[in-house]
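Recall the central idea of this unit: under ordinary conditions, the amino acid sequence of a chain determines the structure it adopts. In this exercise we apply that idea directly, starting from the sequence alone.
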Amino acid sequence: MQWTISELIKRFDGKLLAGSADAILTHLSTLGEATIGAVSFFSSPQYATAFYQTQAAAVLVAKDFKPVAPVTAALIGVEDPYRSFCLLVEEVYQQKMDAKSGIEFPSYIGQQVTVGANIYRGAFSYIGHHVVIGKGVKIYPHVYVGDHVMIGEDTILYSGVKIAAYTAIGSRCIIHPGAVIGSAGFGFVTHSDGSYKRIPSVGNVCLEDDVEIGAHTTIDAATVGSTIVGQGTKIDNLVQVAHNVQIGKHTGIAAQVGIAGSTKVGDYCRFGGQTGVAGHLHVGDHVTAIGRAGITRSFPKGHITLSGTPAFENKKFLSCYARFKNLVPAKK
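Accordingly, the structure predicted from this sequence is:
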């Protein structure tokens, strides 16, 4: 792709703060890895050294930014440099994705399947019976889609994704390689002799619109009813969501989080990496869990930041930790 500096100024309602508007921009890059023709962004002081040393042709900066040393790049002042840069990333991504179309062989499609216009089906993909696929869906090679699955418009299933029977997926969802949606829940009855009998999962998984699921994440089907991931929620790689969990809208969950069965998570929550949530809890709206938090009780009122294991309010945790780390071990 190519852009001109004048084009970016117009697109982002920006202004030229330094340098020439003549350069042709050919690719996106970080500040430290930029080469001739690159466009990058600068929005955090921690990258100041990389900014002043960058070889980028143009850098998106805040409109009120004033450099404290000479720079070789043209500086384009915009309202939000990071957001503007992400829009360019999305543009490049869409161009790459639009190249995929049609049906590759060998691939399998079952009986009584409804397929929308302009879909892509990659080689070795499998689509079961009674499936409904919306228009613009992209199904990459080696994807498995079970019977009675519903997939909304413009959803993308990357290579190796497994979608179990009766799963419902909304529009504009993105499911990354190796994710498993609708696997059997971890539910067992214990016999008197200590042995286990599996409880079958006869429910399903429902992903609402604009959900993103990371690589090798697993979301278990409900024992009965539905495991639900709300609209706009983004889940990172290597996350485990157990049976009958309900996650609200626009929640962000980082890698290696585990949420145990039948827990309800509210809207606009943020869970840092390796956070663990016990089963049958209620976590309200706007809860932030610092990485490795262990949530063992409910916080239904929400609007709280949690730390530690067992997790409690972050400011209290930091106060306790300040005392704990200064304790002197007892002498033997």
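The first helix runs from residue 5 to 11.
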